[in-house]
Amino acid sequence: MTHLKRAGALLAVVLLAAFVVPRIIPVPDDLISFGFHKVDEAANEQFWASLPMQYANPTVCNDCHQDKSSSWTLGDHRAVSCETCHSPANDHIAGKGLPAVDTSRDFCGTCHSSLISRPANFPQIDIGEHGGQNTCVPCHNPHDPREGMPPRLPHSMEGRENCQSCHNPSEPLVTVPPRVPHTLEGRENCTSCHGTTEARPTALPRIPHSLEGRDNCLLCHNTSAIKPFPENHTGRTTDTCRNCHQPAG
Amino acid sequence: MKISRRDFIKIGAKGLLAGVAFSSVPFLLQGLVKNSSRAIAADGGGLERHNWGFICDNEKCIGCGRCVVACKKENKVPWEPEFNRTWVERYIITEDEKIYVDSPNAGRDGFQDFPPKLDVPESEVWKSFFVPKLCNQCHRPPCVTVCPVGATYQTHDGVVLIDQDHCIGCRYCIQACPYGARFFLPELGVVDKCTWCYHRINRGLIPACVEVCPVGARIFGDLNDPAGTLKTTLAQKRFYVLKPELGTEPKVSYIGFEKGVY
Predict the structure, then answer these.
(1) Contacts of residue A83 in chain B, CB cutoff 8 Å?
(2) CB 3.0–4.6 Å: which of A51, A94, A144, A183 could bond B199 by disulfide?
(3) Chain center to CA of B4
(4) What H or E segment, with its residue span, contains residue B231?
(5) Shared-domain flag, residues B188 and B260
């Protein structure tokens, strides 16, 4: 038996010496270093990760252009990155020219021309009709597009004393229902309907409403205006209304 | 010489054990030598730290195509409309539930009019919306499976990359991608695809298309970051992925599900 064991041990040593140990020398750790056999993933990732960039970001732009970014931060375009309109900035940052900006109607229209596919709550205009064929920028500051525009409705009355400076009879700016814009003829006191602290151009006073400050019923309640005025009421005047319609509250 | 059955089995078993032990030596040695750590992220962490993800919000997309422009400029993608790493599709669903999809110039120039080719009047449109498209960086990418030379693979942070030196331009992966995310670059003779701006995300920035999107319809982030915008948005919104039945496990999630979007 001993000689058999010895033979076995010898065979093992020979195997190790002849095949396993030399194999370590010619067979490389990986095949990458021998050319085209396998992708060197780490090197490839490094290649992609180190490519040069074209686009910076608003934080970088703000380093120099605070004058623009201060109005932009508050305006309705604050979610729009500078480079969305101004094109990539990295060449400009490196001192190579100014980033181009397109101020044509068509460029603004890429976002704001009316399309059935856009979300309904996104501001859209009929590019063929709106504002003639002028460029947009003279009226709309691109950094703060609502600057100088009518306030969103309903707006607060704070600091607004003279309603007719915006809402004048010949050119009413409010275009909201019901039956509005109405003429301002005979309506001196806007706040009698439109509240004192908060304007209510989209809603009429709650019914029944108080009569405080309202002395001319037919101003609102007439055949051509807002509230019901039954046919059999023809000929009635403000003086007779309260015979039946008692003030609320 | 006579050898008993017991001894024969004993010796055989020992020999077998020794053989297995010997043949494993080179692998053990290789394991000791091989450096398996990978780290290129600018924030110092290894790739394994991140698991990038992406959201496209169909409810917000306005189809302005700024993403397509930004992608082309950032990644030197040819300006011609047939080469795109990202593009925008317009879906039009009529009252009788017929679905029309178009993408003029891949959405690069925005969408100017109601599609003139469509023989359906605008009044018969039931609904219409935009769907941004890009590489889904699938968790189980079919394009990687089919590559005959192993030139494309998935990184440890979950992005599918191509090695341009190894790609032989056979375009099998273009056929295999169910999302049409790959295209052939004739100039280099290789296939190209979206890398989620690998050069930007590894510098701590967001992809160019996400950067320029004016309405926040594209969100990029790390699925490993539980407090990040990506994870919190996915937690709040109902979302879906494209062609889930294929088992590719895409990492682009879409908000605003609509039957028929593929």
Answers:
(1) 70, 211-212
(2) A51
(3) 63
(4) helix B229-236
(5) yes
The letter for the amino acid at B140 is R
Q: Kindly state whether residues B32 and B85 are assigned to the same domain.
A: no
CB A54 to CB B34 under 8 A? no
What residues have CB less than 8 Å from A229, skipping those under 6 apart? Answer: A221, A222, A223
- The SS3 of residue A50 is coil
Question: In terms of domains, do B201 and B99 share one?
Answer: yes
How many CB contacts within 8 angstroms connect chain A with chain B? 143
Residues B185 and B236 in one domain: yes
How many CB atoms lie under 10 A from the CB of residue B249?
Answer: 13
Q: Residue A91 sits in which domain range? A: 59-115+124-139
In this structure, what are the phi and psi dihedrals at residue A183, rounded to the nearest 5 degrees?
Answer: -70, 160
**One domain, residues B86 and B21:** no
**Residue from A1, A5, A16, A44 to probe the interface with B (highest B Cβ count within 10 Å):** A44
Number of domains chain A contains: 1
Within a domain: residue A243?
no
Pair B70, B143 in one domain:
yes
User: Closest Cα partner for A50 from B80, B160, B165, B201?
Assistant: B201
Each residue's pLDDT, cut to its tens digit, for chain A (249 residues) gives 788 899 999 998 998 888 777 777 777 666 656 656 678 889 999 999 999 999 999 999 999 998 888 889 888 899 999 999 999 999 999 998 888 889 999 999 999 999 999 999 899 998 888 878 888 888 888 998 887 776 666 677 777 777 776 666 555 444 333 344 566 666 666 666 665 544 454 455 666 676 766 777 777 776 665 555 677 777 777 778 777 776 654
Q: Are residues B136 and B8 in the same domain?
A: no
- Please count the structural domains in chain B: 2
Same domain, B60 and B163: yes
Q: Give the mean model confidence (pLDDT) for residues B187-208.
A: 96
Residues of A with Cβ-Cβ distance to B66 under 8 angstroms: 84, 110
Reported ipTM exceeds the 0.90 cut: no
| Residues A184 and A168 sit within 8 Å (Cβ to Cβ) | yes
User: What does DSSP assign to residue A171?
Assistant: B
Packing angle of the helix pair A2-15, B5-33 (nearest 10 deg): 20
How many other C-beta atoms lie within 10 A of the C-beta of residue A43? 12
Domain containing residue B135: 38-262
Name the CA dihedral angle for B8, B11, B13, B15, rounded to a multiple of 10 degrees.
Answer: -130
